[in-house]
Write a structure and sequence with these properties.
By secondary structure, the protein is mostly helical. 55% of the residues lie in helices and 5% in strands. The protein contains 24 helices and 6 strands. The longest helix has 16 residues.
């Protein structure tokens, strides 16, 4: 239990710090990707505790959604032996889950772990391996970090990506061992090169089956004959260590919990500089005490006064996926057949190819998302979504239909959408320009005003 003086103590509304639309929208941007006007007002009335609980315990997945998702996944995976590096079909499957699913926090965490354990289709060359890994992140992403590590160590995509299936006792391969120590658990400065070599030896034994000398199958097996059974010393502990021993030893190291919590902080709270040890250590202590329960520490973050403070508000640059999916979740345009494929293409143009991060370190994030080309791509996405494009079969956003769906009076359309998108939290000059463009209240005028809002710096920030 956090002390009342801790920044991680639960947020309680006061007259000077009320539960308002800004805080509700902030919760939805961070714990999910964004919310409809109905969802914002539902949670405004429900209060913080119930609203956060809705994210943490969403209930079972609706059967109809599950069936559609399964069909999209089967189509995306293709047939056995397909070594295509085309990611748009599987990206569209995942974007469907992010955009229309009932459990946005799980999808948010799946995206977080995809970047944390960054694995790319160019290198893995099997769409099925990538979807299996994606389902691992979804199933384990808010449970035990130790179990997630065990899952990723035996994950087919990771066994290919970092050569785990080539790590044998007579020819140790250190690729996965190095990233396990540097990126996944401890961070630079908390291990030695000898630790890397010893961890690699302890992780030997995986192999990939072959139909013949040239053609690899999808089957991976742990072969005791390829495993190094001799004594090893890892982080000062000596023994005939194997795979599970490695995970145990790493999680016993005092740096492990803090390393993960720093990444969670960057993903859910702020990218504005490095958080202090004083801020991270209480989270790390809770993480260790809970036996590395991810959901426990994420819950602490989302409930905290620090999460709802100015130190966290609009302190992250939206990734392309957050930018595009958030807009779809907010405006809820018609679900045309090619919409999510177009989103996947736009995300690529903005610098984020789902299932194909640029390296084992993932995407840099933050201000790195914004350069002249990617910023232009964001602006073009806004124009395409609002105005439509007949050549690609995308109709534009219809504010009149949106108003009817949300029971908004015609003369309140722009004001209401502005409140939905930015909670009226914008530069006065931006607000004045947008309002003046929308003043005639025609569809084109409202679209022009919305374009200004959605191309503003404030809308780029989460």
């Amino acid at each position: 239990m956090m002390a009342d003086s801790s920044p991680w103590a639960p947020y309680e509304p006061t007259s000077s710090d009320p539960w308002d639309l800004r805080k509700v929208a902030h919760l939805h941007r961070r714990a999910g990707f964004g919310a409809t006007l109905e969802e914002l007002h539902r949670d405004l009335n429900a209060g913080p505790a119930a609203s956060i609980e809705h994210f943490l315990r969403p209930g079972p997945e609706p059967a109809a959604f599950r069936q559609v998702s399964a069909a999209l996944k089967r189509n995306a995976e293709g047939t056995g032996g397909d070594y295509s590096t085309e990611s748009r079909d599987i990206a569209a499957w995942w974007l469907h889950r992010m955009t229309y699913g009932h459990d946005p926090l799980s999808e948010r965490l799946t995206l977080f772990w995809h970047n944390y354990f960054a694995t790319g289709l160019h290198g893995v060359y099997r769409r099925q391996f990538m979807t299996v890994q994606n389902e691992l992140f979804r199933a384990q992403g808010r449970k035990s970090f130790g179990d997630l590590l065990r899952g990723i160590e035996s994950d087919p995509a990771m066994l290919v990506w970092l050569n785990g299936s080539e790590n044998h006792k007579n020819h140790p391969n250190e690729n996965f061992a190095r990233e396990l120590l540097e990126l996944f658990t401890l961070g630079i400065g908390h291990y030695t090169e000898q630790d890397v070599r010893e961890v690699a030896r302890a992780l030997t034994g995986w192999r990939r089956g072959r139909d013949n000398i040239l053609n690899e199958t999808d089957e991976f097996a742990y072969d005791q004959g390829l495993a190094d059974a001799n004594a090893k010393t890892i982080l000062g502990q000596s023994g005939s260590w194997r795979r599970d021993d490695v995970i145990r030893i790493l999680l016993e190291h005092p740096a492990a919990a803090g390393h993960v919590c720093r990444r969670l902080y960057r993903g859910f709270v702020s990218e504005d500089g490095e958080p202090s040890d004083a801020l991270i250590e209480p989270l790390a202590t809770e993480f260790r005490a809970s036996n590395y329960d991810i959901g426990h520490v994420v819950g602490i973050i989302l409930r905290s006064r620090h999460f709802f403070s100015a130190a966290a508000y609009r302190r992250r640059v939206k990734s392309p996926v957050e930018f595009c999916v958030g807009t779809l979740r907010q405006l809820a345009p018609p679900r045309t057949a090619n919409l999510l494929s177009l989103v996947a293409i736009s995300c690529e143009q903005q610098g984020q190819i789902l299932f194909d991060p640029p390296s084992v370190k993932g995407w840099d994030g933050g201000i790195a998302w914004l350069n002249s080309a990617t910023t232009l791509a964001r602006m073009n996405w806004v124009v395409t979504l609002l105005s439509g494009n007949e050549q690609i079969g995308l109709s534009g956003f219809d504010p009149t239909r949106w108003a009817a769906d949300n029971a908004i009076e015609p003369d309140k359309i722009f004001e209401s959408i502005s409140s939905l998108l930015l909670q009226n939290d914008m530069n006065p000059a931006t607000a004045e320009l947008a309002s003046s463009l929308a003043a005639t209240n025609s569809t084109s005028a409202i679209g022009a005003g919305l374009q200004v809002l959605m191309q503003s710096p404030e809308y780029t920030l989460a």
